[in-house]
Amino acid sequence: MRISRSRSVLLAGAVAVTLSATALPAAFAAPSSTAVISEVYGGGGNSGATLTRDFVELANSGSAAYDLSGFSVQYLPGAPSAGSLWQVSALTGSVAPGGRYLVAQAAGTGGTVALPAPDATGTVAMSAASGSIALVSGTTPLTCKTAADCAADTRIVDLVGYGSAVVREGSGPATGASATASVARAASLADTDDNATDLSAAPPTPVNAAGETSGGGTDPGDPGNPTEPGTVRVHDIQGTTRVSPLDGKAVTGVPGIVTAVRTTGSKGFWIQDTAPDADPRTGEGVFVYTGSTAPAVAVGDSVLVSGTVDEYYPSATTQSITEITAPRTTVLSSGNALPAPVVLDAAAVPAAYVSSAGGASIDALPLEPSVYALDLYESLEGTRVQIADTRVTGATTAYDEIWVTVEPKQNPTRRGGTLYSSYTDQNTGRIKVMSLDTTRPFPVGNVGDVLSGTTTGVIDYASFGGYNLQATELGTLKDNGLRREVTRRQKGGELAVATYNVENLDALDEQAKFDTLAEGVAVNLSSPDIVSLEEIQDDNGAVSDGTVGSEATLKRFTDAIVAAGGPRYAWRYVAPQDGQDGGEPGGNIRNVFLFNPHRVSFVDRAGGDATTAVAAVPTRKGVTLSVSPGRIAPASAAWDDSRKPLVGEFRFHGKPVFVIGNHFTSKGGDQPLHGRYQEPSRSSETKRVQQAAEVNTFVKSLLAADKSARVVTLGDLNDFAFSPTMSALTAGKALKPLITTLPANEQYSYVYEGNSQTLDHILTSPGIRRFDYDVVHINAEFADQASDHDPQIVRIKVDGRR
User: Fold this and answer.
1) What is the side-by-side order of every strand in the sheet holding 530-536?
2) pLDDT means per 10 residues in the chain (802 residues)?
3) Which H/E stretch holds residue 496?
4) How many Cβ atoms sit within 10 Å of the Cβ of residue 462?
5) The model's pTM
6) Hey, which of 146, 588, 634, 656 has its CA 20 to 30 A from 611?
């Protein structure tokens, strides 16, 4: 098995390591007689290098396989600074007795020779001259930065420091590493826990688990290219669960017809058996992974494939892809007819999404393709399928992907999408379509369009989106004329308040982005009185130099709004402490209020800054704010490394209105809907619930001082209307979520993996009795978008009564 963050970087660098149970100073466990780090090379792709990538190689001198499940290889710069972090590359599978295990790392621009197919892949750009590599039991990053501290960490199985590395074993680091030399153990794999003694410089010689080298050779025992089928068929490889019963085992002469070829990214080809068995659980197609080498086969070839069966995990939480790796292929004939495709339509896809394992892995559960949609797709992994006249539910992405549904009546939205309405009601018909044909432009479609005619290809799996159709023949896109919405202008007695996530806007962005976003405010939102913005960055964006102000960014944005026909907005914000609010490193993301001073006034009260908490102040005339603008409980752990809510006091027709702009922590780290763990864990939810509770507490403090206080809470909450986050935010009926006042098929503002869903919200306090609320669809459903979020607006009758 192999786990990688992204298959697209599978060849980005290799680390050659010989596994050692422990190879550290005396404070570490005894020197290993089994697994050790055998070779380390950080010069891949450098000037003068022959190999194109870095690598670490592991080896096993023991008599039994060494299990790497849950292990990792970790890298630290040779002279770590206070900000240096160990970089983690996850491992899986095992190292055979006497065998090797190759970890590819980052690629450079030089070199001409690829590594052999790696057994695991990371993305670490290692130094050619100096660094530390650790083999670790676990995938949590190490924190030690000295040899003594690392010696005390019992998770470290083996460690190699090279060049001038501070973290190393024994008297000193291994020396001589360069763009053309690795540091490697002797053939005996001796481990004395002294890097300077155990490893020496030599030309890099990476070897993978299959015994392949960068020159393309293999160990003796290579079965060669048979001309007669072996005893194993594709359905034997696929088995009746998600994991092959032959995982890690060599197979010889597996017969099949080549049904599709991939010549970019993760190269390889698919074969399908023309003599299927009678079991619907055992798939008849499989991917043959050729690594960096373009496949030397063509569609229609009848082939015999020998190699090693492997379960490749795109990430630690996804399902796996069953593959044949390190292949040796014999072409028997060409131009053969392809197996008939399986038709995927509403009748074929089960209503249930996936079985439950109580949060555990579903890898070992027997497939039930007639009961669960994900089981059906898994049983078709690598198999030819066909879809027809499918509705687009997710617009074409920058990566030439488009989401469609084969269940046209499943939770349709008013504008043609597919609504995501609960954790238990998944949309089973969604599937991502990509193309293997690099000679034709990929169709650009919006939600509600139709991929008409037939689309044929093979079922694959990826970390983003899960099961997908790798098309060999694409249907024709039918434009159904989706148009961007324009909301009505507020009336004289209505206060219009909007929220808009402008996706990391900073002063260095192209003018076109400013102009499109500005048109959204001036035209599509009809120039609201107040606009709460999320994702405004500091003036130099991702440059990390201590800049925290956003004046230049906001000047460009408000100028663009005027040019688009809107008013001259003023703005208020509280600048964050440098590097304390999360988001893109160096960007210092924050919430901002724009307001039209000809329609509404802002009540400025001095004292608000990044660390001062705003408070409700009771008065004889109601409630006011202690500071305006201000931040809610910025010292609370709920906001660690996250955006703090911005609170402002406005006056409209002499009446106070309190606006709270929010941007809760993202869903990063949550397990995918299509992943190997079911039900998936929503680990990020804990932080959002804490944040929602802080906002709820503050709103209640306003209402305790004045039960009729008009409060608008809005922004990108990064969670659904049916989530625990929303329950915490509305607790005690302090706030009403307006998204639930819309018809069910209009309750969305964001489209993700073909699901129309709501992450952005506007909520109002009981003191706001008359309102008109609208989600303005201008981005999320379109391939051409200025932001991935749709803005929302509420028009409030401040003096309204029931």
Assistant:
1) 570-572, 590-595, 530-536, 494-505, 792-797, 771-775
2) 34 36 40 82 90 93 86 92 87 89 88 88 92 94 91 92 94 92 88 91 90 58 65 97 94 96 92 96 96 90 94 92 93 95 97 95 97 98 98 97 96 97 94 94 97 98 94 96 97 97 96 98 98 97 94 98 98 96 93 98 97 96 96 97 97 97 95 95 97 98 97 98 98 98 97 97 96 98 97 89 34
3) strand 494-505
4) 21
5) 0.74
6) 656
